[in-house]
């Protein structure tokens, strides 16, 4: 390897630029690999620890759908599914919707004038995601941690009243920390919610008149399953009432989350439930992870294309640099041939120079990739919301590093082919006679 070191040492500027180009390309590839690996690994771990063994949606629904058609008669399904399959511990219907929230301060300002002129310019209603569920029917399923307040008071869903929707209205809501902070409310405060909004201050008073009031009974942590920083949690029947689906013939839900006693063969349970309830599509955890993998693979493919372009440019640049090195050392190479060095020995010397440049680039690229992946992870976590502790967008693991090393060595070998062939074909006599 000494001739390779000597060749690089004698041309420090050119060698530094070549190694830096390889290092930047390697850092880009490693960064993209770490990003896709991190998302896939974290998503898999979260899904596996969620307690959700099966997920039911309306029939003919794909996991890639951005919206879920309503599941009818959701409340009865929470008992009918376990009755059909004794391995089902919990079948929890969830209704997902967007709502608009207002607090008591805005209510007071809106009602102190007829045209909303008393509302400060910085005050407004707050849009948020919402979940309607049966709080006591989520055994085994990971739900948001309650940080303050007693939480929901009553088991079951009192207002549903076996389909009559004539039971008592609890008027209770749990807000996540993000929504509670934006609205400046605490446990015990009143908030109002409605699926409609107000286009300006003049309509806020009318909005409150038709909105539904709720008492905040808890402040929860973020909820990774629904990646939104602003979430409100209601009894299923009370959210249905606001959305107009509080009827025994409709009784809408968006999804049914199923936790099994024994999750060793979820496909059998999925088939049993799908056969008994043709109005449902039933997905196993493996199907959910497959959908995650498909989404990650799309971005991974895009990243690989970008990385491949960078690698091709780096390889071409390295080839050019090594070719220039061969031209500069043509007389030295001819002299080596003249004193008995075989063509293969000369070619190996040139390839060694190319590989050494790549390894120097690797020594530059890996630390850059490590710093970049950590910075990117911090940035994404700051911008993300509803993510649990320990979630990471990147994974700088041995597999990622090994792939980066293999790619860089491949660059060195490929970039050295053309220069090595040129060195082996140099005419000895002509080079030695050249001035």
Summarize the entry for a quick read.
With 435 residues, the protein is α+β, with helices and mostly antiparallel strands.
List keywords for this structure.
alpha+beta; elongated; 2 domains; 51% helix; 435 residues; 14 helices
Give a written overview of the molecule.
This protein has 435 residues and is of the alpha+beta class. The chain has two domains: 188 residues, no CATH class; 209 residues, no CATH class. It is built from 14 helices and ten strands. It has a six-stranded mixed barrel, surrounded by five helices.
Structural domain count: 2
User: How is the biggest beta sheet arranged?
Assistant: 6 strands, mixed, barrel
Assembly state (oligomeric)? single chain
Shape: elongated
Amount of helix: 40-55%
Low-confidence runs (pLDDT<50, min 5 residues)? none
Question: What separation lies between the terminal Cα atoms?
Answer: 29 Å
Could you report the average pLDDT, rounded to the nearest whole number?
82
Spatially, the strands of the biggest sheet line up as 2-3-8-5-7-6
Portion of residues in beta strands equals 15-25%
CA radius of gyration = 32 Å
Number of helices: 14
The topology string of helices and strands comes to HHEHEHEEEHEHEEHEHEHHHHHH
Coarse structural class: alpha+beta
By DSSP, the count of extended strands is 10
Architecture blueprint of SSEs:
Layout: H1 2-10, H2 12-49, E1 54-58, H3 74-84, E2 88-103, H4 104-110, E3 126-133, E4 146-148, E5 172-176, H5 177-183, E6 190-194, H6 204-210, E7 212-220, E8 231-235, H7 236-243, E9 255-260, H8 266-276, E10 280-284, H9 285-328, H10 330-338, H11 343-383, H12 398-415, H13 417-424, H14 428-433
Helix pairs in contact: 1-11, 2-9, 2-11, 2-12, 9-11, 9-12, 9-13, 11-12, 11-13
């Amino acid at each position: 390897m000494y001739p390779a070191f000597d060749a690089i040492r004698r041309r420090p500027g050119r060698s530094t630029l070549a190694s830096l180009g390889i290092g930047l390309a390697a850092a880009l590839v490693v960064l993209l690999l770490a990003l896709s690996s991190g998302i896939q690994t974290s998503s898999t771990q979260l899904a596996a620890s969620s307690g959700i063994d099966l997920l039911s949606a309306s029939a003919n629904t794909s996991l890639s759908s951005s919206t879920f058609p309503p599941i009818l008669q959701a409340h009865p399904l929470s008992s009918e599914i376990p009755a059909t399959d004794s391995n089902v511990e919990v079948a929890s219907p969830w209704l997902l919707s967007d709502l608009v929230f207002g607090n008591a301060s805005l209510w007071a300002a809106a009602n102190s004038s007829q045209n909303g002129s008393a509302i400060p310019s910085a005050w407004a209603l707050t849009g948020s995601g919402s979940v309607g569920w049966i709080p006591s029917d989520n055994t085994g399923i990971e739900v948001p941690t309650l940080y303050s307040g007693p939480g929901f008071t009553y088991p079951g869903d009192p207002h549903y009243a076996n389909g009559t929707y004539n039971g008592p209205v609890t008027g209770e809501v749990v807000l996540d920390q993000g929504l509670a902070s934006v609205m400046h409310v605490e446990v015990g405060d009143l908030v109002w919610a409605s699926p409609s909004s107000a286009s300006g201050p003049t309509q806020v008073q009318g909005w409150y008149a038709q909105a539904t009031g709720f008492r905040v009974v808890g402040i929860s942590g973020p909820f990774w399953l629904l990646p939104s920083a602003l979430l409100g949690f209601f009894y299923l029947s009370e959210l249905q009432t606001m959305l107009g689906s509080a009827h025994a013939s409709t009784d809408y839900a968006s999804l049914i989350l199923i936790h099994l006693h024994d999750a060793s063969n979820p496909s059998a349970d999925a088939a049993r439930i799908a056969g008994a309830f043709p109005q449902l599509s039933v997905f196993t955890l493996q199907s959910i992870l497959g959908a995650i993998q498909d989404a990650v693979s799309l971005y991974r493919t895009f990243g690989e294309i970008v990385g491949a372009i960078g690698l091709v440019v780096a390889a071409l640049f390295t080839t050019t640099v090594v070719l220039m090195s061969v031209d500069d050392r043509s007389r030295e190479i001819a002299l080596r041939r003249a004193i008995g060095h075989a063509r293969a020995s000369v070619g190996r010397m040139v390839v060694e120079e190319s590989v050494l440049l790549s390894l120097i680039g690797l020594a530059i690229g890996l630390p850059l990739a490590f710093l970049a992946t950590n910075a990117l992870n911090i940035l994404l976590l700051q911008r993300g919301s509803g993510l649990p502790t320990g979630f990471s967008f990147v994974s700088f693991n041995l597999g990622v590093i090994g792939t980066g090393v293999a790619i860089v060595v491949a660059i060195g070998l490929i970039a050295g082919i053309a220069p090595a062939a040129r060195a082996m074909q140099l005419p000895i006599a002509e080079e030695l006679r050249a001035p």
